[in-house]
Amino acid sequence: MTMFLLMFAILYKILGVSIGNSNYPGMNDFGMFFMNTFENSIGNVSNPDVKIWTNSDNISQLETTLIYSVWLSNQFMTTIVLMNFLIAVIS
User: What's the domain count of the chain?
Assistant: First the structure.
């Protein structure tokens, strides 16, 4: 699970997703991405903020689509992993 969190935190950093500093005061960018990805994985889902790409010109649609694709795959992967844990505990 930690590898999933690490991988998606790095992808969010590379793609330029912004996270509000008010949620995580005193943390660096990577720590904020890691904590946000962790919160998404345990059910506190928040949409990625793509305002850095909405102000640019023609690349914004591609980047926005890529960011939401990574976000959706993050939700999908963590749901599969957590469902497997739940099934293992129940059975």
Answer: 1
